[in-house]
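Sorry to interrupt, but I need a hand with the structure work. Could you add the entry underneath, on a fresh line?
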Amino acid sequence: MQIKLISTSDVHGYLAPTDYSRRTDVAPFGLSRAATLIRQLTATDDDTVWPIVIDNGDFVQGSPLTYFIARQHLEAAPLYSRLANCNHVQAGIFGNHEFNYGLDFLDLCESARHYPMLAANIEDDQHRTLFSKPYTILERAGVKVAILGLTTQFVGRWELPAHLKGLHFKDIVTTAKAYVPKLRQLADVVVVAYHGGLECDPQTNHPTERLNGENRGSALLNEVPGIDALITGHQHRRLAVNINGVPVTQPGMKGQNVGLITLDLDAQHHITTSQAETLSVKHAAPDAQAMALIKPINDQMEDWLDTPLGTINGDMLVHEPLAARLHNHPYLNFINQVEMAATGTDIAATALFNDDVPGLKPNVTLREVMNSYVYPNKLAIETITGADLKAALERCASYFLLQDSHVIVNPEFLKPKLRHYVYDIYSGIDYTFDLTRPMGQRVVQLDYHGQAVTPEQTLTVTLNHYRAGGGGNYPMFSTTKIQRQLPTDMTVLIADYFAKHPVVTATQPTNFKVKY
């Protein structure tokens, strides 16, 4: 028997082959391309070849289409599970972004599914069927394969509490230690599908990020014996390796690749050989059946994206992402203006989430807004101390390194996962970084209303809800410090701002300086 474990992960709602930058865009990724590859891998008449398809989470959020469905067309939400059925998915895993639009929406997304959702480390006080299955056992020709589903335990730190009512996320290693021995007794092959990544280098086992519990794939393989294959995600890496004799895959994001683990079994159902690989979809034509499901709502969404909002007087396009982060930028200043107008505070922070953020063209449409502000963030107003603010700015200052007198991005923010979204730019304060100084001592100026900020001073700041909960390793921020939250997504707040200010002037801010 040969078992083929086929996986998608972190599709993030990129269903059609487009990045939505323009109506005619054709991109070399997307679930519809992956569907063609999956169809080829699952189409076999050989009874000794057993394909098993798993979606590893972060499926229903991340693209303009996902926002359009969640906020404008709830009736289209079952599209996600219909597409999964189309791809012969036999097990689904919850990603952290599955919860961004709340549990009712998630239940609607999965309402047409023919497969179980696996949630071994999610405890549900309300005993909903959506979270009731920790694992599934599949059988063919006497061979049994157990699939255990795990979700990064950090969801509770990031997500709005209202979206997680009754849910508790347990440690994934402790959970696996409880289940894997049991599954070894029940099945011939034990597969762990984990919406999380590797926190250590696959070859050296040295940590590649802070060991805070967000990614614990390496710990699973080092501490939990009996795992035959590990499917990972969350970090958006393209990864196919063997660790401690266990094949491991991670297929990137946006349906760029399909993960494939091949296990060969002997007559006694023992694994004799294994192989991990990722298969690019860029040369695969979009699957006709998938596109037939996607096209009606996608066409409506494309019309919606072309809705005009307002105009920009000046240049608000992001030409050099590093320069924008190093010297501030009119686009970032504008986003902070929107935040402060919505909340009534006079300090706000935002991030240039990734290097693909285009900024805003002179004639602004929803398309530009959705492609620049890519997360469904809501705003939180938090009361902090001057010491908290300085510590947050020191975290921001660690984003930069000096190399031969040139400023570069600290590799900590680039590998194993791109994390430009962790670096924030502030408005409402005047501050200066000195990159020649040691980490933790780089904030050499911090003024508010023309006066130096003192450690004990109380300040009110607007943050997105991810940062307000400490996301991105900002322990100085906490949900306990949140005074109030806005229920409206940032993209809507941006559109509302244009409704009140049809012409916005691009202004280069001068409140932030960097010495090097």
